[in-house]
C-alpha cells in the first residue's frame, strides 16, 4: 500500500536543453520509431550546444485539429481528426550574453533558419525536434526581477521522444 509520501512523478529539476544549427536528414516516409533512431544517430555523430540558465522549460507537444460538421437531417455534430500541429515551446532563460547556447539561439533568430533541439529530462526521457525560433525578447521586469529572455520555438513536423522505442503492451 502506497503511503502519503510516495511520489510516482519526477520533478523538472535537472532537465537540460541543447541546440544545433543544422538538421538531421530524415526521410519523412519513416515510422516515428525510425525517425527517433535517425535523431539518435545524428546526436551520436554531432554534438549539441547546451543552453544554460533555463528557468522555465515550457511544454513540449502538439495537438490534433478537430474538424466537424452539423447534419441538417438530425441536428447532430459529427467530428473527425484533422491535421496534427506539433506545437510550439517557449523557454525562459536567465539572460547570459556569454553562454554559447544562448549566443547560438540569438544568431538563429536573426538568420531565420530551423535548428535542431534536444531536451533531456531527469527521468531519462529524451526529446528531439526541429523548429524555427520566432522570437527572443528580453524581459526587463521590475526592480526585483532579473533580466531574462523568452525564446519562442515553432516546432516543425513532429516531436520524437525516447518513449517511442518502448513496446506498446496494450497494442494501441
Instruction: Kindly give the count of domains.
Output: 1
- Helical content class: 10-25%
Count of separate DSSP helical elements: 2
How much is the radius of gyration in Å? 20 Å
Proper CATH architecture: Irregular
Tell me the structural class: alpha+beta
Distance between the termini: 29 Å
Plain-language structure description:
It is a single chain. This protein has 172 residues and is α+β, with helices and mostly antiparallel strands. It has one domain (16-165): Factor Xa Inhibitor (Irregular), CATH 4.10.410. Helix content is 15%, strand content 40%. The chain is built from two helices and ten strands. It has helices at 32-45, 100-111; strands spanning 16-20, 49-51, 54-56, 63-70, 77-85, 88-94, 114-120, 126-135, 138-139, 148-161. A hairpin with a 6-residue loop joins strand 4 (63-70) and strand 5 (77-85). The two termini are 29 Å apart. The model has no long low-confidence stretch (mean pLDDT 86).
Summarize the structure.
Helices cover 15% and strands 40% of the residues.
Keywords:
two-stranded antiparallel sheet, Factor Xa Inhibitor, alpha+beta, 172 residues
Secondary structure blueprint with pairings:
Elements: E1 16-20, H1 32-45, E2 49-51, E3 54-56, E4 63-70, E5 77-85, E6 88-94, H2 100-111, E7 114-120, E8 126-135, E9 138-139, E10 148-161
Antiparallel strand pairs: 1-2, 1-7, 3-6, 4-5, 6-10, 7-8, 8-10, 9-10
